[in-house]
Amino acid sequence: MTTPTVKLNSGYDMPLVGFGLWKVNNDTCADQVYEAIKQGYRLFDGACDYGNETEAGQGVARAISEGIVKREELFIVSKLWNSFHDPERVEPIARKQLADWGVDYFDLYIVHFPIALKYVDPSVRYPPSWTSENGKLEFSNTPIQATWQAMEALVDAGLARSIGISNFSAQLVMDLLRYARVRPATLQIEHHPYLTQERLVEYAQKEGLVVTAYSSFGPLSFLELEVKNAVNSPPLFEHDLIKGIAEKHGRTPAQVLLRWATQRGIAVIPKSNNPTRLQQNLDVTGWNLEEGDIQKISELDRGLRFNDPLGYGLYVPIF
């Protein structure tokens, strides 16, 4: 099974459904990526912060060596971590990440957060974290404009075909678009029925940015992290409305949540190590929800954000 693609403002086609690598264990990552490719996944969303890019690359290499897929048929995404925002740090870390993946270019390279932190050399600690070598949260003075110019240089050098942003507010997107020589192709945000961010989504789409949703299943991804508002929030899979719509359409709650996004042109990047669910998660474009269903799901919005630095004990009040 293959998934439809969406045309980016860079001219490249991006699959509407991909496989997210956040919290994929190192010991299973290569096999999970390999199996996902066999199932039909072509987009893989990674980041140096996830700490599993080498293993993800091993899964890709195995699939390519066996003739299951060609490199040009894949859409590999990675992200620039906060501690590499200083302009002179951008290309070296991008090259390291490319080497970890075992590829020559990223299809999409994203600024992970609009936060510049003090540089920590990868030889000292990798994958990176929110704190510097002394264990404290320390900021860099690098503005987003300087970081973005270094991102644009990656496109010039052929290291990234498209560049994008993540966790940016509408105000920051507006500011970035004023000086961007290479416009961001995508905006990746937390997006689920408890956090619909409708104004941000509408603005980004009007400006020609493709929105990608992460954490499409809401609190589920954050329970093991013991994020307080996730633990106290009703699971979307068990919500009567979601279950009822799933039964009506002969689908799973997960498929309903993903179709709620993709039917509105929002890309999704779920993950699973279960072959059945892998296939189900990919099958979220060839059928439609009723407009009334979409509206009712959207009305579940509670402004609940789970991926917030404050929730991890970090005073970075960006949202």
List the helices and strands and how they pair.
Elements: E1 5-7, E2 13-15, E3 19-20, H1 26-39, E4 43-45, H2 53-65, E5 75-80, H3 87-101, E6 108-111, H4 144-156, E7 163-166, H5 170-179, E8 186-190, H6 198-206, E9 210-214, H7 228-231, H8 240-249, H9 253-262, E10 267-268, H10 275-282, H11 291-298
Parallel strand pairs: 3-4, 4-5, 5-6, 6-7, 7-8, 8-9, 9-10
Antiparallel strand pairs: 1-2
Helix pairs in contact: 1-2, 2-3, 3-4, 8-9
Tell me what the structure shows.
It is a single chain. The chain is α/β, with parallel strands linked by helices and 319 residues long. The protein has one domain (10-306): TIM Barrel (Alpha-Beta Barrel). It contains eleven helices and ten strands. It has helices at residues 26-39, 53-65, 87-101, 144-156, 170-179, 198-206, 228-231, 240-249, 253-262, 275-282, 291-298, and strands at residues 5-7, 13-15, 19-20, 43-45, 75-80, 108-111, 163-166, 186-190, 210-214, 267-268. The strands form two sheets. The chain has an eight-stranded parallel beta sheet. Strand 6, helix 4 (144-156) and strand 7 form a beta-alpha-beta unit. The chain is globular. It starts with a strand and ends in a 21-residue tail after the last helix. The mean pLDDT is 96. Pfam families: Aldo_ket_red (PF00248).
